Amino acid sequence: MQKSKELGWYTLGHIPSMVGLDGVLAGGMNELSHIEGLIEDALRVLRLNREEYPADWNVCDSYGEACMKAGMKERTLESYERALALDPMQDNPRNMLRQLRQQ
User: Fold this and answer.
1) pTM surpassing 0.90?
2) Alpha carbon of 23 to those of 28, 56, 62, 99: distances in Å?
3) What dihedral angle (degrees, nearest 10) is formed by the CA atoms of 33, 37, 100, 56?
4) What is the domain partition of the chain in residue ranges?
5) Rounded CA gap, 48 and 100, in Å?
């Protein structure tokens, strides 16, 4: 939350409500990684979010998805591994790791 304040972002929980992406965040932080053309912005915001909330599996999962879309395989694997380590009950990071390792 402190990094968001330093950047002048108003936050609601983990979700900054303004990052210059005009309403992109309305669907939540995870939606950032789904928007074509905004991957660099998503990576920047999700990286800050990961720094602010390092123990949140979903934050790591979202960063892994953005890294995957940006073609950053090592960071993708690291993020999904971290997400699964934080919460071994989550299916998405487990499934994504399996899929990535089969490629």
Assistant:
1) no
2) 10, 24, 18, 32
3) -20
4) 2-102
5) 24
Judging by beta carbons within 10 Å of its beta carbon (0-12, 13-18, 19+), is residue 37 exposed, middle or buried? Answer: exposed
What fold characterizes domain 2-102? Answer: 1.25.40
Angle at 102 between CA 70 and CA 30, to 5 degrees: 35
Q: Residue 1 has which token pair?
A: 């939350």
CA 93 and chain centroid, separation: 12
For residues 93 and 21, the model is more confident at 93
pLDDT over threshold 50, residue 17: no
First-to-final CA distance of the chain: 37
54 with 25: CB under 8 angstroms? no
